[in-house]
């Protein structure tokens, strides 16, 4: 069942405060897995999709966790209003590359309302996107900090912060339609960079649903794994990368050169024509080695 509570105010995905629009904070509410599938399918553009994602309450465990974290807050962020909602994707509709992570961090995206923003994982991925010429600046600290992406859309397989960074398979499956629709709304998409094994597993049903023929058995996840699929829009390449979690970056399992190499491959594959956004040509000042 889907419903809408009384309007009060909202902070739209991307961050501006809006008043008098939509439900309790301006977004349509979705409460069931079937509602997610239906609502995602019917979203006509990314703005509508982002608003619907932001109002989703289909996973009770995650709703409860994200809201509790937002209520209690970390001491160092006590003076901030947490987003406390699902976190929509970020980046333009003409993106040729999508980067898909696991889920928002409790005090990162769940706090700032922007994917990968406000935590160490975000520091890594946005710095790497900047070095690849896909981001206007190497940092992503809060909505309104001036960050713009070119040629790339960044999203998560699961949109709500999970306890212990561990969504259940059922929660992953419930959330999948949001990602499926998001990828479908990127008509120029050529490459999907998947961060981590969880996202890798989540990606196959999404791509099967989008009409791509999947190899059997499913390709194993690994850093630098590369699979090219044929589908309704031609070829799509899926690249694997270790996740930018602190578990990987602190231990040296994932280094900056390793991440840069995957993004370099992504921009190379995305380059249908020289100078296309997402083709790896510097946009907004990112250095190229
Ligand atoms: S994880 Fe996804 S499906 Fe579940 S409540 Fe959050 S946005 Fe909705």
From TrEMBL:
UniProt-listed SUPFAM superfamilies: Uracil-DNA glycosylase-like
Short name of one Pfam family: UDG
Lineage summary: Bacteria, Bacillati, Actinomycetota, Actinomycetes, Geodermatophilales
Region (Disordered): 1-28, 269-289
Protein family per UniProt: Belongs to the uracil-DNA glycosylase (UDG) superfamily. Type 5 (UDGb) family.
Highest taxon of source: Bacteria
Name under which the protein is recorded: Type-5 uracil-DNA glycosylase
Keyword DNA damage in annotation: yes
Keyword Transcription applies: no
Keywords associated with the record: 4Fe-4S, DNA damage, DNA repair, Hydrolase, Iron, Iron-sulfur, Metal-binding
InterPro entries: UDG_Type-4/5 (IPR051536), UdgB-like (IPR044147), Uracil-DNA_glycosylase-like (IPR005122), Uracil-DNA_glycosylase-like_sf (IPR036895)
Gene3D superfamilies in the cross-refs: Uracil-DNA glycosylase-like domain
Positions of the Uracil-DNA glycosylase-like domain: 88-263
Biased amino acid composition, Gly residues: 275-289
